[in-house]
Recover the amino acids of this structure.
């Protein structure tokens, strides 16, 4: 009768390490999964940041082009106004004499 009781005691003592080994394996799998999810999320965020940076740069470039166009248009309008004023002035000078 002691032999079966001893066997049960031995089995009971041996079972928790096998459960712990299974738990450790499960924990290891969970850790790997979390690492994979982290890497995937990090890659996705880096991709999204790159897209936003490109959009910001495109907007800056467009604003710079618009500013340059506006400046060119203003400069052209000023030149045209000066020419017209000179033409008008020369017409008046000729009319006076």
């Amino acid at each position: 009768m002691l032999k079966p009781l001893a066997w049960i005691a031995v089995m009971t003592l041996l079972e928790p390490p096998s459960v712990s080994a299974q738990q450790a394996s499960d924990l290891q799998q969970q850790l790997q999964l979390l690492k994979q999810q982290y890497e995937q999320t990090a890659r996705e965020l880096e991709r999204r940041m790159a897209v936003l940076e490109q959009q910001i740069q495109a907007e800056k470039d467009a604003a710079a082009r618009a500013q340059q166009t506006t400046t060119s248009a203003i400069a052209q309008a000023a030149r045209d106004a000066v020419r017209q004023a000179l033409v008008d002035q020369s017409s008046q000078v000729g009319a006076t004499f």
Observations:
- Helices lie at 2-96.
- The chain has a mean pLDDT of 83.
- The chain has one helix and no strands.
- The CA atoms of residues 19 and 25 lie 10 Å apart.
